[in-house]
């Protein structure tokens, strides 16, 4: 139900349901010690509701928990790279340079601990200037050109999920370098993909497109 409400942009209704699931998942320490619950969902919901300060605080707590070992489960095979990527986005967008710098340093250190191709490690490496956008597309879909990458994503859910993340964070990289127009292009390309349902970046891209439309 929480996921459905998120998809329908009914964020205020979704938040308490995610909080209930979060409490349940973290309330079984003998079964899942160090479980992060649904804090990443909750952070993104606060962001979508306009509470950037709370969203950043929750996401930063997740990253800190990974670093100090209190969180032992991550959402990806690269040891919690996703949380750092989302903190980079939030820091850059809210102009919290302290959080953005912390997140990029976190990503730099994580990339050295895991295999270069373990997803979403290539996204972090693209942020850090280690691989090109074409190489990032290839890591996501097997194709280096965007039209072909989109074709693959239409046919394969995993490729669509990864392309969604790649496009979103390439947009954030443009924002970091002061290219807001380039950022919006990527956000629109990300949102134009069929919703992969479980990628926070798609919902954040939808939000970004909505904000840009409201300001136009």
Write a concise keyword list for the protein shown above.
2 domains, 12 helices, 216 residues, mainly alpha
How does this model look, in words?
- With 216 residues, this protein is an all-alpha fold.
- The chain has two domains: 1-121, Serine Threonine Protein Phosphatase 5, Tetratricopeptide repeat; 132-216, no CATH class.
- 70% of the residues lie in helices and 0% in strands.
- The chain contains twelve helices and no strands.
- The chain has helices at residues 2-7, 11-26, 39-48, 52-68, 81-93, 97-111, 121-127, 133-141, 146-155, 157-176, 180-192, 200-215.
- The longest helix is centred in the C-terminal third of the chain and has 20 residues, at 157-176.
- It is globular and about 45 Å long.
- It starts with a helix and ends with a helix.
- The mean pLDDT is 91.
